[in-house]
Amino acid sequence: MGASSRRRRGVTGADFRDNHAGQALRSERDDRIRRRGRRRPGNGPVSDYNGRVMAKQDEGEGGRVAAVQSVDRALLVMEIIAKLGQAGVTEIAAELGVHKSTVSRLITVLESRGYVEQLSDRGKYRLGFSIVRLAGSTSAQLDLVGQSQGTCNMLAAESGETTTMAVLDGNRIINIVEAMGTGSVALRTWVGRSCPAHATSSGKALLAALESSEVRRRFGGKLETYTDNTLASVADLTAQLDEIRANGWASVREELEIGLNAVGAPVRDHTGSVVAALSVSGPSYRLGPDRFAEVAQLVAVGAAGISRRMGYRG
């Protein structure tokens, strides 16, 4: 940086020297921290599971710093176990670069809270059920992928049409599993695609699990339309949801796209809550209204099977 540039910015020579001096001091301090870390791996910087280095905190902050470090290490312990599937104290200590006694204390607390559990046959630890409870809907989605892919494959083969699993996200759905039917010629995938809930069979099956007041809250006033068949008002939607609750399944006739029909049914978890919806979709010339009842039976059976694997006993 030239002198004229410094003058334009109002930076004096003293300011410039002070800035460089400050940088030198900070660099020297950082070097000391790194050197301490290399000499004392048990108490120095710890790398997290994304490769970030966490420098040892100023010990003057006392117990507050120690508490934060303990929380951070406890999270790292769970990340390590998640990556390895199961791990012993020695393995975890080696990964963290801390003493085994430190890991043992962390494991004791995590185990008491249900976040890890010991495998009695080998003395190693795996993640506990509290992780699933804490993760909530995200874990439910991950469980759904594993529990539903086989059913989607069988349903696609049986119906000949594309089968998907979707979860509710506000007033839209996100498709998380897909299986292509034998009659499908589409090259696109629905996985990861967000669609309006009120214009899809999966979305309607999911919305039917909500109170009408909650449906109104999510949509507000007018609904966005995509074809002439798309429901245009929340009043029409809530009325149709009453019918879906009574029938146990939902259908759409060219409401999202012209020429595309679909039938969907809800999937429940171990609490009885609707957490996803299974659907079959296909071209209107193959999946017409005359097939809705037949396909709905297949979808309902498939959804019930996934629900049972998710722990539902209703």
Automatic annotation (TrEMBL):
<dbReference type="InterPro" id="IPR036388">
    <property type="entry name" value="WH-like_DNA-bd_sf"/>
</dbReference>
<dbReference type="Pfam" id="PF09339">
    <property type="entry name" value="HTH_IclR"/>
</dbReference>
<feature type="compositionally biased region" description="Basic residues">
    <location>
        <begin position="1"/>
        <end position="10"/>
    </location>
</feature>
<feature type="compositionally biased region" description="Basic and acidic residues">
    <location>
        <begin position="15"/>
        <end position="33"/>
    </location>
</feature>
<feature type="region of interest" description="Disordered">
    <location>
        <begin position="1"/>
        <end position="62"/>
    </location>
</feature>
<dbReference type="Pfam" id="PF01614">
    <property type="entry name" value="IclR_C"/>
</dbReference>
<feature type="domain" description="IclR-ED">
    <location>
        <begin position="130"/>
        <end position="312"/>
    </location>
</feature>
<dbReference type="GO" id="GO:0045892">
    <property type="term" value="P:negative regulation of DNA-templated transcription"/>
</dbReference>
<dbReference type="InterPro" id="IPR014757">
    <property type="entry name" value="Tscrpt_reg_IclR_C"/>
</dbReference>
<dbReference type="InterPro" id="IPR029016">
    <property type="entry name" value="GAF-like_dom_sf"/>
</dbReference>
<protein>
    <submittedName>
        <fullName>IclR family transcriptional regulator</fullName>
    </submittedName>
</protein>
<keyword id="KW-0805">Transcription regulation</keyword>
<dbReference type="InterPro" id="IPR036390">
    <property type="entry name" value="WH_DNA-bd_sf"/>
</dbReference>
<dbReference type="GO" id="GO:0003677">
    <property type="term" value="F:DNA binding"/>
</dbReference>
<feature type="domain" description="HTH iclR-type">
    <location>
        <begin position="68"/>
        <end position="129"/>
    </location>
</feature>
<dbReference type="InterPro" id="IPR050707">
    <property type="entry name" value="HTH_MetabolicPath_Reg"/>
</dbReference>
<dbReference type="InterPro" id="IPR005471">
    <property type="entry name" value="Tscrpt_reg_IclR_N"/>
</dbReference>
<keyword id="KW-0238">DNA-binding</keyword>
<keyword id="KW-0804">Transcription</keyword>
<dbReference type="GO" id="GO:0003700">
    <property type="term" value="F:DNA-binding transcription factor activity"/>
</dbReference>
